[in-house]
């Protein structure tokens, strides 16, 4: 399917690895010029180098913490100065926080909110005036299946996911008249560093019978138990949805949170 977005320009946050990298790759392969962002410069430059191997690829990078107050302006300016526009915004940077209300600290709440929600709000505010001028824009916000079916073991992450879904719907209604479509993806278990770094330690603590197993095997068993399709998802499977939502082929889906969780309502 030709997505009809050749020549468009995008920002993908959290694009040095995992789902964000897969989305950037998918957009580049569809002729989109992409600004990729993440904090660790070395890993970001490695990602850029790989993306630039695609024929005709246009990729710029900004090492930035999306939680910083000026990050949104920096990223939008980079897209404008390098590629002349900003048509597609993929708000993907973030991580999970494992724990309930009683074992999440004030800092956990403040930091997670800044990275996941406040950064999204700021990036939308910076990008939308440019999309309005062209009367075309696509925004995709990475959320979690827990925004729809909360799991108390992931309290902070899932409260913020519900807020992302609400931001997505409200903003979609606000800008629909401007040709801008805004959607979220309610992601389930997808095998990335996020899973290994933030979820696995909590699973290991609660599931002592798996203590002798390697990380991949723990993920495989948990996914088989909790996911109707019997496995974790891949970053590429999420990227395919994000690319469609970002494309000219999507003209009628807006304000939605697309569930992408292999049928599961929880993943730990
Ligand atoms: N994987 C899952 O099962 C799953 C499930 C539900 C929702 N999600 C959501 O999907 C998104 C992508 O997850 P993933 O699994 O692909 O994660 P990942 O593999 O850990 O990758 C996260 C990316 O975000 C960047 N990042 C993190 N914090 C950042 C910050 N403050 N500023 C800028 N960049 C930042 C990371 O690079 P640096 O560390 O160098 O900054 C990296 O590029 C996240 O928002 C996550 O919450 C994932």
TrEMBL record:
Name of the protein: SDR family oxidoreductase
Entry superkingdom: Bacteria
InterPro entries: NAD(P)-bd_dom_sf, SDR, SDR_fam
Family: Belongs to the short-chain dehydrogenases/reductases (SDR) family.
Record Pfam families: adh_short_C2 (PF13561)
Gene3D superfamilies cross-referenced by the UniProt entry: NAD(P)-binding Rossmann-like Domain (3.40.50.720)
Species whose genome carries this gene: Bradyrhizobium zhanjiangense
PANTHER family: 3-OXOACYL-(ACYL-CARRIER-PROTEIN) REDUCTASE, NADPH-DEPENDENT REDUCTASE BACG
């Amino acid at each position: 399917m030709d997505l009809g977005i050749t020549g468009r320009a995008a920002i993908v946050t959290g694009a040095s690895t995992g789902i964000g990298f897969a989305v950037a790759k998918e957009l580049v392969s569809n002729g989109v010029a992409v600004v990729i962002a993440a904090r660790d410069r070395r890993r970001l430059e490695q990602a850029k180098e790989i993306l630039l191997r695609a024929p005709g690829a246009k990729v710029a990078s900004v090492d930035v913490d999306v939680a910083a107050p000026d990050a949104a302006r920096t990223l939008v300016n980079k897209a404008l100065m390098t590629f002349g526009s900003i048509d597609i915004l993929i708000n993907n940077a973030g991580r999970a926080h494992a724990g309930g209300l009683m074992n999440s600290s004030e800092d956990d709440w403040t930091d997670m909110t800044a990275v996941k929600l406040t950064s999204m709000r700021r990036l939308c505010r910076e990008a939308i005036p440019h999309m309005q001028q062209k009367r075309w824009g696509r925004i995709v916000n990475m959320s979690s299946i827990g925004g729809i079916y909360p799991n108390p073991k992931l309290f902070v992450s899932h409260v913020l996911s519900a807020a992302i879904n609400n931001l997505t719907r409200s903003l979609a209604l606000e800008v629909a008249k401007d040709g801008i479509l805004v959607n979220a993806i309610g992601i389930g278990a997808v095998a990335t560093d996020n899973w290994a770094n933030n979820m696995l330690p909590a699973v290991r603590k609660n599931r002592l019978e798996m203590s002798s197993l390697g990380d991949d095997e723990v993920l495989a068993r948990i996914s088989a138990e909790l996911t109707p399709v019997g496995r974790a998802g891949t970053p590429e499977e999420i990227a395919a949805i994000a690319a469609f939502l970002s494309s000219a082929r999507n003209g009628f889906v807006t304000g939605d949170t697309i569930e992408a969780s292999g049928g599961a309502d929880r993943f730990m």
